[in-house]
Amino acid sequence: MWPIIQIELFKIYKRPRTYIAFGAIAALILVIQMGLKIDGEAYAAFLMKDINDTLTVDGKVLNGYLICYILLQLLLVHVPLLVALIAADMLSGEANLGTLRLLFTTPYSRTQWVLAKFVAASIYTILLLIWLAFLALFMSMWIFGTDDLFLMKSNYVVLIQEQDVFWRYLGAFVFASFSLLTVAALGFLMSSLANNSIGPIVATISAIVFFTILSTLNIPLFNVVKPYLFTTHMNNWKEFFDIQVNDSNDAITGSILNVAKIKNSIIILTIHIGLFVGASVWIMKKKDILS
Amino acid sequence: MSVIKVQGLSKSFGALKAVDQLSFEVEAGQVYGFLGQNGSGKSTTIRMLLSLIHPTQGHIEIFGQSLSDNRSAILEQIGAVIERPDLYPYLTAQEHLTLFAKLRKQKITAAKIEATLAQVGLLSRANDKVQTYSLGMKQRLGIGIALLHDPQLIILDEPTNGLDPQGIADIRQLIKSLSKDQGKTVLVSSHLLSEIEQIASHILIIHQGKKMAEGPKSSLLDPNKTIVQIKTLDDQDAKQKLIASVYQSNLLERTEGLYLTIPKLEIPALNAFIVSSNIDLVSLEAKNSLEDYFLQLTSTF
Amino acid sequence: MKKLSLLIVGILLMQVSIFAQSNALIERVTKKLNLVNDYVATGVMKTDVAFIKASLGKVKIYFKKPNLLKVKKEGGISLLPKGGVSVTINSLLNNKQYIAIESGVQMFKGKSLQAIKLIPTDEKLDWVISTLWIDPVDALVYKTFTTTKENGTYEITMEYGQYANYGLPSKLIFGFNTKDYKLPNGITLEFGDEDPAAKQKALKQKKGTIEITYANYVINQGVSNSMF
Question: Is A291 among the domain residues?
Answer without folding.
Answer: no
